[in-house]
Specification:
49% of the residues lie in helices and 19% in strands. The chain is α/β, with parallel strands linked by helices. The chain folds into 2 domains: 36-145 and 285-310, Response regulator (Rossmann fold); 148-278, Rossmann fold (3-Layer(aba) Sandwich), CATH 3.40.50.2300. Strands 2-1-3-4-5-11 form a 6-stranded parallel β-sheet, sandwiched between helices. The chain has a 4-stranded parallel β-sheet with strand order 7-6-8-9, sandwiched between helices. Strands 10-12 form a two-stranded antiparallel ribbon.
Length: 318
């Protein structure tokens, strides 16, 4: 009898121990699960996105218990197909949040839909996804970023002080299918209209230095009276500065940009570039990550997310 009783007591003890341990193990597993955040950017050849990546990594380093971070970028600004593949890889990797700076405002929407259908929270930064295409897919994707039109108008208004009515200017636009390129062009046009300057050409430099240089050179050749080149980002502005120098027009043609990357600062200092705008790449990444983590912590679904978190954009001059 004693032997049988002893066996029953031992069996009961095992059951009670298991019952006590299992909830603790489960709680530990939940506590141990950190959200996995993927930051998917445009070209890492562009200093702006390197700054964004560095800001995100620094933020994760200071908050190591809150989330894990994966960063990805594409080879150049027009490599949309590869960016779509990266997002698909993040879906397969089962990340919890994707913070996306899309290379194309429309082409990325279908893969965003795939991510959302897989239960991943998607936050849009830098370049806004097309609202009409999102609506057609019944998607709510919060946008974290600056008012690009307002930012470009600030730069254009500063340039306008150097111009007079009737002066000819040309605009180097980013990738024309991106919302931020379109908005910056619109902001530049707003400022030029105010002063009465004539926009004689708008062409895409695809956000790249070399392409910006080629486009600016063609503009200066086709329109020799151009007084200013307004570039939608600093990479294209750097290309435009080279084109102005090659045309022998230094000091005769103003150049402005957008982004305030490190490479543009010596040009601001010596006057080769008149002005740019700082849209705080690192802050955009951090705000985007926070928006995604907040949704996770509050157990919100993508359908419950919407709206705009406007980040700052400031005029930068010498």
């Amino acid at each position: 009898m004693n032997h049988r009783i002893r066996r029953r007591v031992m069996a009961a003890t095992v059951v009670l121990t298991a019952a006590a341990v299992l909830p603790v193990s489960s709680a530990y597993a939940q506590a141990a699960h950190k959200p996995k955040v993927a930051l998917v950017m445009k070209s890492l050849a562009n200093e702006f996105f390197l700054t964004m990546e560095t800001g995100a990594k620094d933020y994760q380093k200071h908050n190591p218990n809150n989330f894990d971070l994966i960063t990805n970028g594409i080879k150049d600004e027009t490599d949309t197909a590869n960016q779509i593949r990266i997002v698909e890889q993040m879906i397969v990797s089962k990340v919890d949040v994707i913070v996306l700076a899309p290379a194309d405002s429309k082409a990325l929407v279908p893969v965003v839909k795939k991510a959302v259908d897989a239960g991943i929270i998607v936050v849009n930064i830098d370049n806004r996804l097309d609202p009409d295409v999102l609506k057609s897919k019944d998607l709510n994707v919060p946008f974290v970023g600056p008012d690009n039109r307002k930012g470009a108008q600030k730069v254009g208004d500063y340039l306008a002080k150097k111009l007079k009515s009737g002066d000819e200017v040309a605009i180097l636009e980013g990738v024309s299918t991106t919302t931020n390129a379109q908005q910056r062009t619109a902001g530049f046009k707003d400022a030029m209209q105010t002063v009465g300057a004539k926009v004689v050409s708008v062409q895409s430099g695809e956000w790249e230095i070399d392409k910006g240089n080629a486009v600016a050179s063609a503009m200066l050749s086709e329109h020799p009276g151009v007084k200013a080149l307004l570039a939608g980002n600093d990479n294209m502005a750097i290309g435009a500065v080279s084109a102005v120098r090659a045309a022998g027009k230094q000091g005769k043609v103003y150049v402005v940009g957008y982004d305030n990357i490190n490479a543009i600062r010596p040009m601001l200092k010596d006057g080769r570039v008149l002005a740019t705008a700082d849209q705080y790449a690192a802050k955009q990444a951090v705000f985007g990550i926070d928006t995604g983590l907040k949704a996770i912590n509050e157990h919100k679904k993508q359908s419950e997310l919407s709206g705009v978190v406007e980040t700052p954009v400031d005029l930068i001059t010498k």
